[in-house]
Protein backbone atom coordinates (compact mmCIF):
# COMPACT_ATOMS: atom_id res chain seq x y z
CA UNK A 1 0.00 0.00 0.00
CA UNK A 2 1.48 3.32 -1.11
CA UNK A 3 0.57 6.68 0.37
CA UNK A 4 2.08 10.09 1.02
CA UNK A 5 2.23 12.59 3.85
CA UNK A 6 1.84 16.26 2.94
CA UNK A 7 1.69 19.17 5.39
CA UNK A 8 1.61 16.70 8.32
CA UNK A 9 -1.47 14.85 7.02
CA UNK A 10 -1.43 11.27 5.76
CA UNK A 11 -3.18 10.70 2.44
CA UNK A 12 -4.56 7.29 3.48
CA UNK A 13 -5.14 7.64 7.21
CA UNK A 14 -6.73 11.10 6.99
CA UNK A 15 -8.49 10.95 3.60
CA UNK A 16 -8.52 7.34 2.38
CA UNK A 17 -6.29 8.18 -0.61
CA UNK A 18 -3.96 5.55 -2.05
CA UNK A 19 -1.24 5.99 -4.67
CA UNK A 20 -2.31 3.87 -7.65
CA UNK A 21 1.21 3.33 -9.01
CA UNK A 22 4.57 4.26 -7.61
CA UNK A 23 5.48 7.67 -9.09
CA UNK A 24 8.56 8.29 -11.20
CA UNK A 25 11.03 10.42 -9.26
CA UNK A 26 13.22 12.51 -11.59
CA UNK A 27 16.66 13.77 -10.65
CA UNK A 28 17.14 17.55 -10.78
CA UNK A 29 18.56 19.13 -13.90
CA UNK A 30 21.83 20.98 -13.39
CA UNK A 31 21.88 24.52 -14.81
CA UNK A 32 24.55 24.58 -17.50
CA UNK A 33 24.53 27.22 -20.24
CA UNK A 34 26.11 26.56 -23.64
CA UNK A 35 27.54 29.51 -25.54
CA UNK A 36 28.48 29.13 -29.22
CA UNK A 37 31.62 31.03 -30.20
CA UNK A 38 32.32 31.59 -33.93
CA UNK A 39 35.45 29.77 -35.09
CA UNK A 40 35.54 27.50 -32.05
CA UNK A 41 34.64 23.82 -31.98
CA UNK A 42 31.91 22.71 -29.61
CA UNK A 43 30.42 25.20 -27.13
CA UNK A 44 31.68 27.10 -24.15
CA UNK A 45 29.87 25.72 -21.12
CA UNK A 46 29.07 27.76 -18.04
CA UNK A 47 28.08 25.63 -15.05
CA UNK A 48 26.19 27.68 -12.46
CA UNK A 49 26.53 24.91 -9.88
CA UNK A 50 22.77 25.06 -9.23
CA UNK A 51 19.78 22.81 -9.98
CA UNK A 52 16.26 23.31 -11.29
CA UNK A 53 13.05 22.29 -9.53
CA UNK A 54 11.56 18.88 -10.22
CA UNK A 55 7.97 17.81 -10.86
CA UNK A 56 6.47 14.64 -9.36
CA UNK A 57 3.14 13.39 -10.72
CA UNK A 58 1.17 11.15 -8.35
CA UNK A 59 -1.77 9.06 -9.57
CA UNK A 60 -4.25 8.75 -6.71
CA UNK A 61 -7.40 6.74 -6.08
CA UNK A 62 -10.17 7.09 -3.54
CA UNK A 63 -12.87 4.55 -2.70
CA UNK A 64 -15.29 5.35 0.08
CA UNK A 65 -18.72 6.69 0.83
CA UNK A 66 -19.70 10.37 0.58
CA UNK A 67 -17.15 11.06 -2.15
CA UNK A 68 -18.39 14.59 -2.89
CA UNK A 69 -17.62 15.76 0.65
CA UNK A 70 -14.23 14.04 0.52
CA UNK A 71 -13.36 15.84 -2.72
CA UNK A 72 -13.95 19.20 -1.04
CA UNK A 73 -11.82 18.21 1.95
CA UNK A 74 -9.00 16.89 -0.25
CA UNK A 75 -8.95 20.01 -2.42
CA UNK A 76 -8.82 22.28 0.64
CA UNK A 77 -5.95 20.25 2.13
CA UNK A 78 -3.82 20.14 -1.00
CA UNK A 79 -4.29 23.74 -2.16
CA UNK A 80 -4.38 25.53 1.19
CA UNK A 81 -1.16 23.91 2.44
CA UNK A 82 1.05 25.98 0.12
CA UNK A 83 4.69 24.89 0.06
CA UNK A 84 5.21 22.16 2.63
CA UNK A 85 6.92 18.87 3.46
CA UNK A 86 6.10 15.90 1.22
CA UNK A 87 7.02 12.36 2.36
CA UNK A 88 6.31 9.15 0.43
CA UNK A 89 5.64 5.91 2.29
CA UNK A 90 8.21 4.05 0.16
CA UNK A 91 10.99 6.38 1.39
CA UNK A 92 9.81 7.72 4.71
CA UNK A 93 13.20 8.92 5.96
CA UNK A 94 13.45 11.59 3.22
CA UNK A 95 11.23 14.54 2.38
CA UNK A 96 10.68 17.01 -0.44
CA UNK A 97 9.70 20.64 -0.08
CA UNK A 98 6.72 20.75 -2.42
CA UNK A 99 3.59 22.55 -3.55
CA UNK A 100 0.57 21.33 -5.54
CA UNK A 101 0.54 23.16 -8.89
CA UNK A 102 -2.14 21.46 -11.02
CA UNK A 103 -5.88 21.81 -11.31
CA UNK A 104 -7.07 18.46 -9.97
CA UNK A 105 -9.61 16.54 -12.07
CA UNK A 106 -11.53 13.96 -10.07
CA UNK A 107 -12.64 11.21 -12.46
CA UNK A 108 -15.26 8.70 -11.35
CA UNK A 109 -14.34 5.21 -12.54
CA UNK A 110 -16.88 3.17 -10.57
CA UNK A 111 -19.93 4.11 -8.58
CA UNK A 112 -17.94 4.54 -5.37
CA UNK A 113 -14.43 5.09 -6.73
CA UNK A 114 -12.57 8.04 -8.23
CA UNK A 115 -9.09 8.60 -9.61
CA UNK A 116 -7.19 11.86 -9.85
CA UNK A 117 -3.65 13.13 -10.48
CA UNK A 118 -1.75 15.35 -8.07
CA UNK A 119 1.28 17.16 -9.45
CA UNK A 120 3.84 18.45 -6.97
CA UNK A 121 6.42 21.08 -7.87
CA UNK A 122 9.40 20.30 -5.63
CA UNK A 123 12.62 22.02 -4.76
CA UNK A 124 15.54 20.14 -6.33
CA UNK A 125 16.70 18.08 -3.36
CA UNK A 126 15.47 15.51 -0.88
CA UNK A 127 16.09 16.34 2.79
CA UNK A 128 16.42 14.17 5.88
CA UNK A 129 13.14 13.94 7.81
CA UNK A 130 15.14 13.75 11.05
CA UNK A 131 17.06 17.02 10.92
CA UNK A 132 18.33 17.01 14.50
CA UNK A 133 20.76 19.40 16.15
CA UNK A 134 24.31 18.10 16.46
CA UNK A 135 26.19 19.39 19.52
CA UNK A 136 29.99 19.81 19.35
CA UNK A 137 31.99 20.70 22.46
CA UNK A 138 35.52 19.95 21.28
CA UNK A 139 37.43 21.73 18.52
CA UNK A 140 38.78 19.34 15.90
CA UNK A 141 35.61 17.24 15.66
CA UNK A 142 34.78 15.45 12.40
CA UNK A 143 31.21 15.65 11.14
CA UNK A 144 30.11 13.24 8.38
CA UNK A 145 27.68 14.38 5.70
CA UNK A 146 25.72 11.24 4.60
CA UNK A 147 24.05 13.04 1.67
CA UNK A 148 24.94 13.14 -2.02
CA UNK A 149 25.48 16.90 -2.24
CA UNK A 150 26.86 19.55 0.08
CA UNK A 151 24.48 20.91 2.71
CA UNK A 152 23.86 24.46 3.90
CA UNK A 153 23.69 24.29 7.70
CA UNK A 154 22.44 26.56 10.42
CA UNK A 155 25.17 26.94 13.05
CA UNK A 156 24.63 28.14 16.64
CA UNK A 157 27.84 29.45 18.23
CA UNK A 158 27.87 29.88 22.02
CA UNK A 159 30.71 31.91 23.50
CA UNK A 160 32.16 35.34 24.22
CA UNK A 161 34.71 37.67 22.67
CA UNK A 162 36.45 37.24 19.32
CA UNK A 163 36.05 33.76 17.82
CA UNK A 164 37.32 32.11 14.65
CA UNK A 165 35.24 29.19 13.44
CA UNK A 166 36.82 26.93 10.80
CA UNK A 167 35.03 24.29 8.75
CA UNK A 168 37.35 22.35 6.46
CA UNK A 169 39.86 25.15 6.87
CA UNK A 170 37.47 27.90 5.73
CA UNK A 171 37.40 30.64 8.37
CA UNK A 172 34.50 32.64 9.74
CA UNK A 173 35.55 35.40 12.11
CA UNK A 174 33.04 36.48 14.76
CA UNK A 175 33.86 39.73 16.55
CA UNK A 176 32.74 40.68 20.05
CA UNK A 177 30.28 37.85 20.67
CA UNK A 178 28.38 38.40 23.91
CA UNK A 179 26.58 35.06 24.24
CA UNK A 180 25.25 33.40 21.08
CA UNK A 181 25.03 33.93 17.34
CA UNK A 182 23.23 31.98 14.61
CA UNK A 183 25.09 31.67 11.30
CA UNK A 184 22.44 30.64 8.78
CA UNK A 185 23.90 29.44 5.46
CA UNK A 186 20.44 28.80 3.97
CA UNK A 187 19.35 32.42 4.43
CA UNK A 188 22.86 33.92 4.14
CA UNK A 189 22.17 35.76 7.37
CA UNK A 190 23.49 36.06 10.95
CA UNK A 191 21.21 36.87 13.86
CA UNK A 192 20.36 36.15 17.50
CA UNK A 193 17.39 34.40 19.11
CA UNK A 194 15.33 37.59 18.75
CA UNK A 195 16.18 37.80 15.03
CA UNK A 196 18.32 40.91 15.54
CA UNK A 197 20.72 41.36 12.62
CA UNK A 198 24.31 40.46 13.58
CA UNK A 199 25.91 40.42 10.13
CA UNK A 200 28.24 43.27 11.12
CA UNK A 201 29.93 40.93 13.64
CA UNK A 202 30.83 38.28 11.06
CA UNK A 203 33.48 38.15 8.33
CA UNK A 204 33.97 35.26 5.92
CA UNK A 205 31.94 33.01 3.64
CA UNK A 206 28.88 31.17 4.89
CA UNK A 207 29.91 27.57 5.61
CA UNK A 208 28.83 24.46 3.76
CA UNK A 209 29.19 20.81 4.76
CA UNK A 210 30.69 18.81 1.90
CA UNK A 211 29.96 15.14 1.21
CA UNK A 212 31.85 12.93 3.64
CA UNK A 213 34.10 14.24 6.43
CA UNK A 214 33.94 17.84 7.65
CA UNK A 215 36.48 19.10 10.18
CA UNK A 216 35.01 21.61 12.65
CA UNK A 217 37.55 23.72 14.57
CA UNK A 218 37.61 27.00 16.44
CA UNK A 219 39.76 29.37 18.43
CA UNK A 220 38.50 31.66 21.17
CA UNK A 221 36.18 31.28 24.11
CA UNK A 222 33.56 28.84 22.78
CA UNK A 223 31.44 26.74 25.15
CA UNK A 224 29.73 24.71 22.43
CA UNK A 225 28.55 24.73 18.84
CA UNK A 226 25.24 23.33 17.63
CA UNK A 227 24.70 22.49 13.98
CA UNK A 228 21.38 21.94 12.22
CA UNK A 229 22.88 20.10 9.23
CA UNK A 230 20.10 20.15 6.60
CA UNK A 231 21.44 17.01 4.86
CA UNK A 232 20.43 16.79 1.19
CA UNK A 233 20.22 14.15 -1.57
CA UNK A 234 19.95 14.52 -5.33
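Q: What amino acid sequence fits the structure above?
A:
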Amino acid sequence: MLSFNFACKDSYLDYGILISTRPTIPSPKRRVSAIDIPGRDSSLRYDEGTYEDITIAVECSLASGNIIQKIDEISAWLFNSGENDLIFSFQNDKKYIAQVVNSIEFKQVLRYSIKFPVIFNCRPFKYAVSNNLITITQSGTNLINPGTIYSMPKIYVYGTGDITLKINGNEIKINGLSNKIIVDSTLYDCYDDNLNNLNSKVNGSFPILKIGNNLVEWTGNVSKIEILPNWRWL
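Q: And what stands out in the fold?
A: The chain has two helices and 20 strands.
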